[in-house]
Amino acid sequence: MNTDSFSLSPLGRLATPFPDKFGIPRQPSLAPHATGTLRLLPPYDRPEAVRGLDAFSHVWLTFVFHQTGGQWQPTVRPPRLGGNARVGVFASRSPFRPNSLGLSLVELAGVDTTDGVVLHFRGVDLVDGTPIVDIKPYIPYVESLPDAVGGFASSAPPRLTVNFSTAARQAIERQARHHPELAALITEVLAQDPRPAYAGDPARVYGVRLYRFDVKFRVADGCAFVDSLDPA
């Protein structure tokens, strides 16, 4: 085995509500209604491979930033710093990393072994189709560190209030059978303010795709206003 290079085999690809990078929560668990489903591929789809996993409430997902693979930068501009100040890539969670690997802590919502292995998660922050290369249980007594220092991300960013137009509410109600969580998911996503850091025009209309819907919204005075919800 050549210890100077390594290869990774995806366990499967995560299905999520986010077909595009724009609008994805910038950290896991910020949108609890963002669900993910992972069907393990052969030869990893054996029930014994996940035996005991359902005893844990959360898991770490190691994944590949497949849309930015092969690109990296020594310094990046984190959104939390306004998109202007630069820090080293290793002082950030930027996808533009030398080995394109990411780590996400998600809630384990279910383990289904009736037909292969299917894992269900809540609070995902990954684009639809992300390759998952490892799964590890979260161990609270060693991995929850209340005295840890968070650098430039030491506290949660301010949240927007989210309001819906009558037309948007009606469109959401029509999807209640297939997506009962849709209103909550839109609220959680837009409350994080997915716009670029330099955005400031209250008249500008933005669009974020969730599942197969194009959600149009504007932001002014600390409020995100959802104008419409249309099939993408």
TrEMBL record:
Keywords: S-adenosyl-L-methionine
Domain of life from the UniProt record: Bacteria
Domain TsaA-like: 8-147
InterPro entries linked: TrmO-like_N, TrmO_C, UPF0066_cons_site, YaeB-like, YaeB-like_sf, YaeB_N_sf
Family matches, as Gene3D superfamilies: YaeB-like
Stored Pfam families: TrmO_C (PF18389), TrmO_N (PF01980)
Family stated for the protein in its record: Belongs to the tRNA methyltransferase O family.
UniProt-recorded name of the protein: tRNA (N6-threonylcarbamoyladenosine(37)-N6)-methyltransferase TrmO
Originating organism: Jeongeupia naejangsanensis
